[in-house]
Design goal:
Blueprint: H1 2-9, E1 17-21, H2 44-63, E2 67-72, E3 74-76, H3 85-94, E4 99-102, E5 108-109, E6 111-113, H4 114-126, E7 132-136, E8 142-143, H5 144-154, E9 163-166, H6 181-187, H7 195-208, H8 210-214
Parallel strand pairs: 1-2, 2-7, 3-6, 4-9
Antiparallel strand pairs: 5-8
Helix pairs in contact: 3-5, 3-7
Length: 216
């Protein structure tokens, strides 16, 4: 990553470098955190993202490198990898296969539908000032267990029928809360797709391709 960034920095007439980061750099937190909060990573994955963000900040400070960093809640939507929680749970429900929940399923998450992600990226590309950072977060929070219940309700399946509980994933953060006021006030961004609506759209996509996806 360092080599790539240094190569990009050497390009002439570079207008903007946009990076998609993660709220995991802040670690688990109960309060809504702004872009200026200190990093507090708790996993190797989060540490690697902190290193990249620090590197980019350094380039901006020392070389006026024109970056914009966006930190996003969980992505979802049609076309997402099938091992991700929403498409995987939907496919399990359709195929009457049990879905395994890590631990008690009580970790809280916020999800952003793909069109809202695209609009955020466009805001970073064309409206954000160089050397800036923004949080993008849907205010809908839901626990993993409630998310699976919502999906099974959409599939008209009894929750306890196709559910198993496995061990808790080591190092998992319980909750990420980000303050999106800056992206709302400065960029005019907002999340337009409610979780229930987005899940319905993913259902239609998986149902349309069920035969193919079930072989994967």
């Amino acid at each position: 990553k360092s080599y790539v960034l240094e190569t990009i920095r050497s390009l002439k007439n570079l207008e903007k470098y946009v990076r998609a980061s993660t709220p995991e750099v802040f670690g688990t937190n109960e309060k809504k955190l702004s872009e200026n909060n200190l990093f507090n990573p708790s996993t190797p994955y989060a540490i690697s993202h902190c290193a990249i963000d620090f590197h980019i900040r350094c380039l901006g400070r020392n070389y006026n490198f024109p970056y914009s960093i966006g930190r996003f809640s969980n992505f979802y939507g049609e076309g997402q990898q099938l091992y991700r929680v929403i498409p995987k749970a939907i496919l399990c429900a359709m195929n009457k296969k049990k879905f395994i929940i890590d631990g008690k399923g009580d970790s809280l998450r916020s999800f952003i539908y793909k069109s809202d992600i695209v609009s955020a990226i466009k805001k970073l590309l064309f409206e954000a000032k160089p050397i800036s950072e923004y949080n993008f977060c849907n205010n809908e929070e839901i626990s993993i267990i409630e998310l699976i219940k919502l999906i099974y309700k959409e599939a008209n399946i009894e929750f306890n029928e196709l559910i198993e509980f496995g061990p808790e994933r080591e190092g998992k953060d319980m909750i990420y809360r980000m303050d999106s006021n800056k992206s709302i006030s400065e960029l005019g961004w907002k999340s337009n797709i409610a979780l229930s609506n987005g899940i319905y759209r993913v259902f239609k996509w998986i149902k349309k391709n069920k035969t193919y996806f079930s072989k994967l």
